[in-house]
Amino acid sequence: MSIGVIGAGKWGSALAFALSEKSEVKITSRRPRKLDNFVSLEEILECEYLIITVPVQQVDSWLKENFVFKGQKVLVASKGIEATSGRFLNEIYAAYIPQENIAFLSGPSFATEVMNSLPTALVINAKNSSLAEEFAAFFPSFIKTYVSDDVMGAEVSGAYKNVIAIAAGICSGLKLGNNAAAALISRGLVEMERFGTAYGAQKETFLGLSGAGDLFLTASSTMSRNFRVGLGLAKGLTQEEILEELGEVAEGIGTAYALHDIATKENIYLPIASEVYAMLEGKSPQDSLRDLLGN
């Protein structure tokens, strides 16, 4: 058995480290890295099992330019919604990989803690239950894995929680207090569920690791890039200034734009996500707070 990780950023490197407890793992990325078992993309694509961490806003072009399907079994380990089209990751990958060969990873998981072998719990989501079980068995002793067939619930949760995390960062940056933070996160969970069930997701997913678990983690810590985006917005920084300061991708930004477009077209009530979009477009956090409290 061979496992290949595509993407050598923090999350890809953390997954390669974790999976190496039980298996031989190779890793690759666009730019060469001085990492153990770093190989070419061509060699990675020969692996039977692939873990792909390419960010959602880049994944379609990456697949078009680089991916060759050879029967590989794929675990998608990125989260988000494509801003330009509103497509979920499972919709993007469907053009390249059969449904029986693909699974999606979800759950609360900071890369730094995984690299330190700290206890973590994750969910492998796939329509093919045997594939989900195969991937679940690869994870190390410090990661508890569960399996689910609710791919859409995992997708919505993984994308939406990043937008709520931006809002939580704004809340923290404005020093609005613990009451406000608790209200924001709990109402964010309700909003996430409302959106997800409109797409056929299972309600119980939003109360589990993929939903509430990942939301509580991402919306309560400066270890979250999206939370730090919110802190930047609270300071009055522009998107460009925030991203330059981060030096990393923050998936919640693109997802906020996608959610705004979807909510407008489908007439879905998403007050928190709508205000995050407005703030990314330049609306003042104080005005957004006033409007949220008034609606």
Spatially, the strands of the biggest sheet line up as: 2-1-3-4-5-6-7
Q: Average pLDDT, to the nearest integer? A: 95
Provide the CATH superfamily of the largest domain.
Answer: NAD(P)-binding Rossmann-like Domain
| Span of the ends, CA to CA | 55 Å
Strand content: 5-15%
Characterize the main sheet.
7 strands, mixed
C-alpha-based Rg, rounded: 18 Å
Structural class: alpha/beta
The coarse overall form would be globular
Tell me the total number of β-strands: 7
Question: What is the CATH T-level topology of the largest domain?
Answer: Rossmann fold
Count helical runs: 14
How many structural domains?
2
What is the architecture of the largest domain at the second tier of CATH? 3-Layer(aba) Sandwich
- Assembly type of the chains comes to single chain
